[in-house]
Design a protein that fits this description.
By secondary structure, the chain is an alpha/beta fold. Helices cover about 35% and strands about 20% of the residues. α1 links the parallel β1 and β2.
Length: about 525
C-alpha cells in the first residue's frame, strides 16, 4: 500500500515540478508535505474573515510575483492551465514613483513603452536603457540555457565561451572582454556605470537587490542585467493567489495517478547500505520508493533527515559550512481599506498593475544596508509594494484590498541581544510607514496584517535563517558550486537520494528550474530500469 516509484519530500514548487515530470513519465509519485497547506513558499491562505469581510482575504505567504518560470517552458509543457492555473499579466511589471515631486517610471514588457515612460522622468537614460537591455539580453539568452540544464563540471566561463562559439549569442565582436568584466562586476557598479539619472539608478538597484547579495558583491552584475529578460517574458500573477501554481501542480500529479499528502512531516529518510529506500514521518508511518527526492533545504535534508550516521565527516562538515547568510528581508501581508494613491502619480492608471518600488535613492539603500551589517533592522527600510487586488478581485471579494510589502535589509541574527519576537510589530510598522510616506492616504487604512520577520519566515517555511533563497546567491555558491560541488548534479552521496530545491542550481525565486533539472537527471539515470 505504501510503495511508490518516487517520493517527493516537501511540496514547494521545485519539488512539485520534479513530481509532475516523473508523473508525466508514468511513474507513481507520492508527495509528503509537513504543513496542512501544500505549496511550500509558493502558497496562498485565506485570512482575516470577519462579519465585515465574510470571505476573508487571499494572502500569499511566500513568493508572489512569477517571472522566471515563464522562461522555462514548464507551464506550457505540463499544460497547467488545464489543472486550474490562470495567469494575469502584470504590465507594467514594476513602477518607480518619484519620491519627491511628480512622475513615475513604468517598466512595461514592451521595451518601447518603457523607453517612453523613462523619457518623462529620466530622458538622459533612454538611450542608456535601450543599450543596456540589448547588451544583457544577448548574455542572458546564453545564461538561461545554463540555468535550465544541470551545471557542468566545467567552469562557468568555459560554458559561456562554448555558448558564444556555438551561436555568437552572448557578445558582439570585440565586446567579449568588456562583457565578461561586467558579469564579474557587482550589480551596484553596473548600475552606477550604466545610468545617469538618480531615480533610474535607485529603481534598478532596488529590483536587482531582490536576489539577496549586497550591491557591492563581485560577480553579481547579471542580477541587474536580468532586467533584460523582463522584456521577454514579462511578469504574471496567478488568479486567486500565488499558490494557484502549486495547486495546479498538485492537480496534475493526482490526475496522473500520484498522491499529494499534507500534514505528513518527514522525520527521517530511510537509508540502508548507502541507499535511500523510503521516508518515515513524525507519526511513525513509513513509505517506500525506488527514488527519494528532497525539496527541503539542503542542510535540513542532509544533516537532519539523513543524519551524520550516513555521511562521512568531511561531507557533513561541507554541508554544515554552506553559507546560508543572515536573512535579508521581511514582509507584511496587509488587508487594507483602499489602494495607495501615490503623491507622485495619484491618478496613474498603471501603477497598481505591478510591483511598486519604494526606495527613494541609492544612498537611502546604503543607509539600510549599513544598519543591516551592524545587526540592526533598517531605521528606514527600502520597500517593495504589491497590490494584486487591483488586477485580481478574487483575492479580496468584499470591496477591500490586499497590499503586500517586502522590505530589506533585516538580519536574522540581531545585535545587542534583540529578539525578533519582541520587535516584529515595531519593524512591521516601519515598513507600513514607508508606504504612507509615498501615499499619505494609507494612514489608518490597515484592517489587519500578517507579519513575517526573518524568524517567522524560518518557522513558516523551513527557510533557515530567513533566507528566502535557501542559501546565499553569491558566486561561490552558484552554478557547479551550489549547494556544494559534490551535490551540484542534484545527486547526493546516498544512492537514489536526489535534491530539487532552491538550495540547488540555479537558486531561488519562482523559477522551477531546479525541479526541472532534477527531473531530467533522475529520468536519464533510471532510463534503463524504468523504461
Amino acid at each position: 500500500m505504501n510503495k511508490y516509484d518516487a517520493i517527493i519530500i516537501g511540496s514547494g514548487h521545485n519539488g512539485l515540478t520534479t513530481g509532475c515530470y516523473l508523473a508525466k513519465a508514468g511513474k507513481k509519485v507520492l508527495v509528503l508535505e509537513k504543513c496542512d497547506t501544500i505549496g511550500g513558499a509558493v502558497r496562498t491562505e485565506t485570512m482575516f474573515k470577519s462579519p465585515e469581510n465574510p470571505n476573508g482575504f487571499r494572502m500569499d505567504v511566500g513568493s508572489s510575483v512569477h517571472i522566471m518560470i515563464h522562461q522555462t517552458g514548464i507551464i506550457e509543457e505540463l499544460e497547467l492551465e488545464k489543472y486550474g492555473l490562470e495567469y494575469i499579466e502584470m504590465d507594467p511589471i514594476m513602477s518607480y514613483p518619484v519620491p519627491t515631486g511628480k512622475g513615475v517610471i513604468h517598466f512595461f514588457k514592451d521595451l518601447d513603452r518603457t523607453l517612453e515612460s523613462i523619457s518623462k522622468v529620466a530622458p538622459e537614460d533612454v538611450k542608456n536603457y535601450k543599450e543596456f537591455v540589448e547588451f544583457w539580453g544577448k548574455i542572458n539568452k546564453g545564461v538561461l540555457k545554463i540555468f535550465t540544464t544541470p551545471p557542468s563540471t566545467k567552469n562557468i566561463f568555459a560554458e559561456m565561451a562554448l555558448n558564444q562559439i556555438k551561436d555568437g549569442a552572448m557578445f558582439k565582436k570585440g565586446e567579449q572582454v568588456s562583457g565578461l568584466q561586467k558579469i564579474l562586476s557587482s550589480y551596484g557598479k553596473v548600475v552606477e556605470d550604466s545610468f545617469e539619472n538618480p531615480y533610474m539608478k535607485a529603481a534598478l538597484l532596488w529590483f536587482a537587490a531582490q536576489s539577496g547579495p549586497l550591491p557591492d558583491h563581485s560577480a553579481t552584475g547579471d542580477f541587474v542585467g536580468w532586467q533584460s529578460m523582463l522584456h521577454e517574458s514579462g511578469a504574471k500573477h496567478p488568479r486567486g493567489g500565488s499558490g494557484m501554481l502549486t495547486q495546479a501542480m498538485k492537480n496534475f500529479i493526482e490526475a496522473h495517478g500520484g498522491e499529494v499528502r499534507s500534514d505528513h512531516p518527514v522525520e527521517k529518510i530511510l537509508v540502508e547500505n548507502g541507499k535511500a529506500f523510503g521516508a518515515r514521518t513524525e507519526s511513525g508511518e513509513e513509505f517506500r520508493a525506488e527514488i527519494i527526492v528532497s525539496n527541503a533545504h539542503v542542510q535540513t535534508t542532509m544533516m537532519k533527515m539523513v543524519g551524520r550516521d550516513h555521511l562521512d565527516d568531511s561531507l557533513f562538515k561541507k554541508v554544515e559550512n554552506i553559507h546560508v547568510g543572515n536573512g535579508f528581508g521581511m514582509v507584511i501581508r496587509c488587508a487594507v481599506k483602499e489602494l495607495p494613491q501615490y503623491t507622485a502619480a495619484p491618478d496613474d492608471p498603471y501603477i497598481h498593475n505591478g510591483i511598486q518600488l519604494l526606495a527613494p535613492s541609492v544612498q537611502y539603500m546604503k543607509n539600510a544596508i549599513g544598519d543591516y551589517t551592524k545587526g540592526f533592522p533598517p531605521e528606514k527600510p527600502a520597500a517593495l509594494a504589491m497590490t494584486f487586488s487591483a488586477i485580481d478581485s478574487d483575492v479580496a471579494l468584499d470591496g477591500n484590498h490586499t497590499m503586500f510589502v517586502w522590505a530589506q535589509w533585516h538580519p536574522y541574527e540581531l545585535a545587542n541581544g534583540m529578539n525578533w519576537d519582541d520587535i516584529r510589530e515595531k519593524e512591521a510598522q516601519k515598513i507600513y510607514d514607508v508606504v504612507v510616506d509615498y501615499a499619505p492616504n494609507m494612514k489608518d487604512k490597515l484592517i489587519d496584517w500578517y507579519i513575517q520577520s526573518p524568524l517567522d519566515i524560518e518557522r513558516k517555511h523551513g527557510l533557515l535563517r530567513g533566507n528566502v533563497m535557501h542559501v546565499e546567491m553569491s558566486f561561490d555558491q552558484m552554478f557547479m558550486f551550489r549547494p556544494i560541488p559534490e551535490m551540484s548534479q542534484y545527486e547526493t552521496p546516498i544512492e537514489n537520494l536526489y535534491l530539487s530545491s532552491a538550495s540547488c542550481h540555479p537558486g531561488g525565486g519562482v523559477f522551477g528550474a531546479a525541479g526541472l533539472n532534477a527531473a531530467s537527471v533522475i529520468l536519464k539515470k533510471h532510463k534503463k530500469k524504468w523504461f
